[in-house]
Description:
Blueprint: E1 3-10, E2 21-27, E3 30-37, E4 45-47, H1 50-59, E5 65-67, E6 70-72, H2 76-97, E7 102-105, E8 110-112, H3 122-127, E9 135-138, H4 144-153
Antiparallel strand pairs: 1-2, 2-3, 3-4, 5-6, 7-8, 7-9
Helix pairs in contact: 1-2
Amino acid sequence: MKIEVRNVKVAKFASQETLCFEARVYLDDKVVGTVTNAGHGGCNEYHPWSIHDTLTAHAKTLPDLVVAGTTLSMDADLVIDELVQDFIAARDYKKTFASRVLCLDSDGKVVQTKKLPKGTDVLAVARSFVGRPNVTQVLNLLPEAEALAILKSASV
């Protein structure tokens, strides 16, 4: 089953304990409803509720999630939260990579340039970082999915 969130709207100003958001949920490329979170620390709300049941059944087939040494059993909220975080990361990736060069240094940390002036050929600048000492990879030169995976796992 292919699960996606699209049309994600985030209200950072309203986020208190959890992320305040609204998103459309797609199963196998068909919209099945929406999921929201008011950002006050509660669980996600699913419209219609059958989305929750479907995602919960799917989550039981996934491996547990380990966060800071704590093991969490996957559930509908964790599935949605990961998808929303991935959506936000992809959106931010596109904005950042349009105006900055991001590199992975020899310590495994992501480092970035200052914002480049408008009209700068970011890829040309990125190519100039290849082979520099302490630069193991230039993320701008990788496919988007690979760069996002590195950003998600690397320390910033």
